[in-house]
Here is the input.
Amino acid sequence: MRSPLPLLRRLRHGMTLGVRVFAADASGRILLVRHTYVAGWHFPGGGVDLGESAPEAARRELREEANVEVEGELVLAGLFFNPKVGGRDHVALFRAGRLVVGPRPRRNLEIEASEFFAPDALPADTTPATLRRIAEAQGAPVADRW
Here is the structure.
């Protein structure tokens, strides 16, 4: 008989996984979203649903939050520990290649706005984690925490 300890440990100490997408349009403007339930501007993203791969979740979140599709592959840019969410949360950051951009979606229960911003004209309340990832893409040292 197999021990129930691994299952109990997983239930008690389960890791959560979220995704974010670093997407820029052909002009180099960076896509950010503002949620209705948390302050600041973030990369589009969210949780990975049961039975869904991280790249599938990234594509879904990009489509749902910003009406943007990615042509081709998403590239994993990093896996970051997010200690602010339960102490076991991780965020997979993907970089998107060529984008197919639809009309900006209207405000809904989750998303207040989604917009493209020039890297030198980001909103003042862009989140620290988002600013770190943008700086890292421009050559700053990479941190392991979101």
In short: The chain has one domain: 15-137. The longest helix spans residues 54-66. The mean pLDDT is 91. The two ends are 41 Å apart (CA to CA).
